[in-house]
Amino acid sequence: MPLNRRSWAEPFKIKVVEPLRITTRQQREQAIAEAGYNTFLLKSRDVYIDLLTDSGTSAMSDRQWAGMMLGDEAYAGSENYYHLEDAVHRYYGYKHLIPTHQGRGAEHIISRVLIKDGDVVPGNMYFTTTRLHQEMAGARFADVIIDQAHDPASEHPFKGDVDLDKLEKVLQENPGRVPYVSVAGTVNMAGGQPISLANMKAVYALAQRYGVRVILDATRIAENAWFIQQREPGCQNRSVAELVFELCSFSDGCTMSAKKDPLANIGGFLAVNDDEVAQAARNLLVVFEGLQTYGGMAGRDMEAVAIGIGESVQDDHIRARIGQVLYLGDKLRQWGIPIVLPVGGHGIFLDARAFLPHIPQTQYPAQALAAALYLDSGVRSMERGIVSSGRDPATGHERAPKLELVRLTIPRRVYTQAHMDVTAESVYSVFEDRDNLRGLRMTYEPKMLRFFQARFEPC
Ligand SMILES: *Cc1c(COP(=O)(O)O)cnc(C)c1O
Q: Which residues have any ligand 1 atom within 6 Å of their CB?
């Protein structure tokens, strides 16, 4: 072993354990057949290591659990609301807190408040629920992310950056019709890729010149700040907390899903600086979410979010969180398994096209790969390819995306590096056996968001 080598370990010890159920191959064969070869339809009890999503699947700390006991379940003016407001001021710097049941609740409210029919909302790629709420409020979404974000082979360090020329063009061509620029920290749909601090600052300056607001999707902002600390010149000695605060300062408000970075199992909020926007948002809040001091969350959940926010911006936490993702990515890469690079903040994306070149896209290679991985070891992943893309509403034809991927999403603080080893070894064993894998045929296709409920059988 080289002398300069120093391993890192999870920055916590384990106080409560949740036993995992290990199944036999025969049990898994039955389970995946019953689930129609769709990992969304598996029962959690049949899963060994669950890498379906990192949404609401985090392990809470002892402090968060202790905070749950301090839940003040008053209908109005709950103590926990004020704790959460404090955390939002301290870590993100926004003036007004508007709590919601989860991220999409905040997206719904801000879209309704700011968007008028026929508006255009530019953004760095899109997230499913964010874009849907903008469209439902009457806007058209304009993608202004840099071209490299759409290229899985590009190793650009900030694939979440906004292309300033594209943005300026949208602002010039639509005077008075751009209610805000929608910027996401680590772009989920691009594989968890970060935006740089310099780019965030430039976007804000440009938007201000046109008198347009910037609304940040801060769901994964701590992960984004860590990439800035690692990669952006001049940021190496700055803390993640400082960088998060500065990123937020280049926006007029944010939407947040507390199910991601803030380490809670449910919750979210909208935060804004403008008094009038806050007032309009609170008016809608009481219609759609709940009173302005709970917005759909129990008092105990607001407390867990308030404490989780503080933990989420700790350097050692975020280093280990993303370190675990990179650890899994490095292993797979060393073994020659095709993955999307650079590895992003929340998961590994297997390139199913390169993995299974003999299965045509019409036979759902990523879906087949996710099913094969489950069969091998009980590891649950998710398809992000032609099944997720659905059909073109105009022609009725399947949309064939360039990217045919399987996502292995890592929940925060839930699994150890040993679980990453088991996962990597299972991917490797499926890779060795790849020539024997067959494609799938769809036997049931729902009309909307088909990936959640579609059923398949082997060809
Ligand atoms: C999950 C997510 C959302 C939506 O949040 P929910 O809490 O699931 O409603 C919005 N933006 C990003 C980037 C997300 O990852």
A: 55, 102-104, 127, 129-130, 184, 188, 217, 219-220, 257, 259-260, 268
What is the mean predicted confidence (pLDDT) over 131-137? 92
Q: For ligand 1, pick from 219, 269, 412 the residue to mutate: most ligand atoms within 8 Å of CB.
A: 219
Is residue 132's pLDDT more than 90?
A: no
Residue 190's pLDDT is 77
217 belongs to the catalytic site: yes
Multiple choice CATH, 62-312, 3.90.25.10, 3.40.640.10, 2.10.110.10, 3.30.428.70: 3.40.640.10
* CATH code linked to domain 25-54+315-458: 3.90.1150.10
The domain locations on the chain are: 25-54+315-458, 62-312
Model pLDDT, residue 1: 55
- Between the alpha carbon of residue 74 and those of residues 47, 79, 258, the distances in Å are 38, 8, 21
Question: In this structure, which residue's CA is closest to atom 3 in ligand 1?
Answer: 103
Listing DSSP states for 31-76 in one string gives HHHHTTT-GGGS-GGG-SEE-S--SS-PPPPHHHHHHHTT----SS
The stretch 55-65 carries a mean pLDDT of: 98
Q: Examine the residue annotation and report whether 23 is marked as an active-site residue of this protein.
A: no
| Of residues 442 and 401, more confidently modeled | 442
Tell me which residue has its CA closest to atom 7 in ligand 1. Answer: 103
